[in-house]
Amino acid sequence: MSKNVSIDWSKLGFSYTKTDLRYISMWKDGKWDAGKLVEDNMISISESSTALHYGQQCFEGLKAYRTPNGEIQLFRPDENAKRMQRSCRRVLMPEIPVDKFIDACMQVVKANEHFVPPYGSGATLYLRPYVIGVGHNIGVKPAPEYLFGVFCVPVGPYFKGGMAPVNFTIADMDRAAPHGTGAAKVGGNYAGSLLPHEEAVKRGFADCIYLDPATHTKIEEVGAANFFGITKDNKFVTPASPSILPSITKYSLMVLAEKYLGMTVEERDCLVEKLDEFVETGACGTAAVITPIGGIEVDGKLHVFHSETEVGPVTKKLYDTLVGIQFGEIEGPEGWIYKVK
Ligand SMILES: Cc1ncc(COP(=O)(O)O)c(C=O)c1O
């Protein structure tokens, strides 16, 4: 480590800390420039930027992990790069080549190496890549210029309690429309989720669960995370829908459940009226990691799964396997780990 920083790693939550350097690249006249690291954490853009008025932007979230021997590694950054390309296509922005995306993440981690929390603290360095439409414009049309940035912040658990079960309620509002932008990681989906989230938190829940926007009968997402359930006969089940954000954690868990834990995996409808098919459920995502769901409030009644206080055995095994691979304690499937050198 090049420098020391005075951070109590064990007290970190999911909040912003200014780190030393961030990456910026500009798209102009049909191409991306080489990109560079900068100190300034403020950006100056036209007041008429499409990102500000028409939500022409997208972002990603991934983490750098410190391993037992002090190395640093990224978990499947190529998948984040590809998802960002899909998001860019959906809102008519130029794509970032996969190699450029990974290189930008590597540069940012290396430049802020001393902010990567030590192994064993449970904390990580969260990377936030983003693309925004900038430049002067006033009509509803794609921007003349784009900015691709990556910054990083050291983070602890997303939901208070970390790997302890938390309760959720069902949202009346939707985060996405049937043929809308739910599968893209664009800011508008998150703006629409602020109010139902706040209402859920005010009522004592960790967050809310979104149902399928067309029929309101099937589970889609758990706040900013995907949903999974474990059935009585030990199947790993997760919803299938075009309006869910395809979670890299969820697709990784599907592989781990099948190949490492010998489970049957199903991606299909998860009906609210059939919640009792599950003995354990959880929320999964880069920030949420695996957060066990204690109970879900449906029509004013709390449906409890394994327990409101204890983590279920299958959820625990999935968590240990996933986190073991991310922190370099367990060998992951080929190509999942990228060493930061
Ligand atoms: C709406 C939403 N769903 C699911 C996820 C989980 O995706 P991932 O596992 O790729 O972090 C996220 C976080 O990125 C999200 O914002």
Automatic annotation (TrEMBL):
PROSITE patterns cross-referenced by the UniProt entry: AA_TRANSFER_CLASS_4 (PS00770)
Q: Which pathway is this protein assigned to?
A: Amino-acid biosynthesis; L-leucine biosynthesis; L-leucine from 3-methyl-2-oxobutanoate: step 4/4; Amino-acid biosynthesis; L-isoleucine biosynthesis; L-isoleucine from 2-oxobutanoate: step 4/4; Amino-acid biosynthesis; L-valine biosynthesis; L-valine from pyruvate: step 4/4
- Report if keyword Transferase is assigned: yes
Q: Which keywords are on file for this protein?
A: Amino-acid biosynthesis, Aminotransferase, Branched-chain amino acid biosynthesis, Pyridoxal phosphate, Transferase
Cofactor(s) needed by this chain: pyridoxal 5'-phosphate
> In terms of domain of life, where is this protein from?
Bacteria
GO molecular function, a single term: branched-chain-amino-acid transaminase activity
**Record bears the keyword Amino-acid biosynthesis:** yes
In terms of InterPro entries, this protein maps to: Aminotrans_IV, Aminotrans_IV_CS, Aminotransferase-like, B_amino_transII, BCAT-like_C, BCAT-like_N, BCAT_family
Catalyses which reaction(s): L-isoleucine + 2-oxoglutarate = (S)-3-methyl-2-oxopentanoate + L-glutamate; L-valine + 2-oxoglutarate = 3-methyl-2-oxobutanoate + L-glutamate; L-leucine + 2-oxoglutarate = 4-methyl-2-oxopentanoate + L-glutamate
Name the EC number(s). Answer: 2.6.1.42
Q: Which CDD domains match?
A: BCAT_beta_family
Q: Name one Pfam family in it.
A: Aminotran_4
Q: Which family does it belong to?
A: Belongs to the class-IV pyridoxal-phosphate-dependent aminotransferase family.
Name it.
Answer: Branched-chain-amino-acid aminotransferase
**Which organism is this entry from?**
Fusibacter tunisiensis
